[in-house]
Amino acid sequence: MVFKTIGKPGKPIALLIHAMFATSNMFNPLIELMQEEYFIVLPTLSAHTTSDIETPPFQSAHAESTEIINYLRRNNFCDIEILLGSSLGGIVAFDIFIRRQLTIHKIFLDGAPFIHLPNPIIKIMETIFSRVSYKSAKYPCKSNILDKMFPTMSTEMKKVCGHMSDRTIKNLTKTCYTYQLPKLIELSENQSVTFIYGTAEIARFSLPAIRKFKNCNFIIKKGYAHCSFLIEEPENYLELLQNT
């Protein structure tokens, strides 16, 4: 895992965790708007690299959250104003939150796939992810689903796909579709959890499983696809982060 920080130490800390096949660069438009007011911590998850240097495979959300927590504690970044996780990053962010080893004020989980699928369907999803990864790496100039879903990010995402092992794909799929939610979410004073979904994304089918958390916020963006509100409207997205 690689970490970078942007902004001035002493400012409120924002921890941003990216989506599958992406890197922390997916937040660049948002970072430009936040860097004067926040000290931003940006992990790039295991195996999500564009470098030819061999890196360890992605193991699990818990392994990723452990590494992030350890980094934050080593550097005394233990009071987090905003924790934002996008898609896969939302699962990792949630795991950081529920471990309660840091003080976190606002937690935002955008498009996190809290969907528990049966094993045969998980195997199908693993095959789909493997094909997307393989074809993206082998034919980077050929348009595919990454170009359709993430037109501004797809070039880098295809490079990331070129460094994904079968083991990483298997573990990513398992993480996305077997994560066990707690029965309750306990919030401390002045703490909030906000789930964000677009009506045009598959991850919205997580809503029946998480609606039970009555003390959380739910923001449903009509017409938006997976991560598209963040990517297309960073100014409005930051306003949401600051005012929710």
TrEMBL record:
<protein>
    <recommendedName>
        <fullName>AB hydrolase-1 domain-containing protein</fullName>
    </recommendedName>
</protein>
<dbReference type="Pfam" id="PF00561">
    <property type="entry name" value="Abhydrolase_1"/>
</dbReference>
<feature type="domain" description="AB hydrolase-1">
    <location>
        <begin position="15"/>
        <end position="134"/>
    </location>
</feature>
<dbReference type="InterPro" id="IPR029058">
    <property type="entry name" value="AB_hydrolase_fold"/>
</dbReference>
<dbReference type="InterPro" id="IPR000073">
    <property type="entry name" value="AB_hydrolase_1"/>
</dbReference>
